[in-house]
Structures are given as C-alpha cells and as structure tokens.
Specification:
Helix content is 75%, strand content 0%. By secondary structure, the chain is mainly α.
C-alpha cells in the first residue's frame, strides 16, 4: 500500500465519521501551537496535582490506620 492509498483511506474514514478534511496546511505557526499546547497542559497538570494521591501518601495513610488498629488492640 502506498502513502497515497493511506491518504485516501484516512480521508474516507474521516468523511464517514463526519469530519472535515484539511487540504492545506494550518494557519498557526509551530511556535503558537506549542504555546497553546503547553498552556492546556499546565491547566491539566494543576487539576491532576490536586487529585493525585501518591504511593507515599497512601503508605502514610495505611501506616496511620495500622497504628490505630494496633493501639485499639492494646486497650
């Protein structure tokens, strides 16, 4: 299969799924696209960092629970 065959297949797939086919290169520069991507990534990371519970945090929580269970048995 040649590259042109792949292009035709991809275009047919996009049309089938109701997607627009771009026939020319984009209107924004690589630099602008990269800046937009980094800005979106930063938004994503902030949300992820708030929701993240690290393995160390989980270990501390489990250790706390085990200590509480251990102190309950000693009473």
């Amino acid at each position: 299969m040649t590259m042109n065959n792949w292009i035709e297949k991809l275009n047919a797939f996009l049309q089938f799924n109701g997607r627009e086919i771009l026939h020319k290169s984009g209107k924004i520069s690589h630099k602008v696209a990269q800046e937009l991507a980094y800005k979106e990534y930063d938004k994503f990371r902030k949300k992820q960092d708030v929701l993240l519970i690290s393995d160390f945090d989980k270990f501390l929580e489990n250790d706390k629970i085990l200590k509480e269970i251990g102190s309950d048995k000693n009473e």
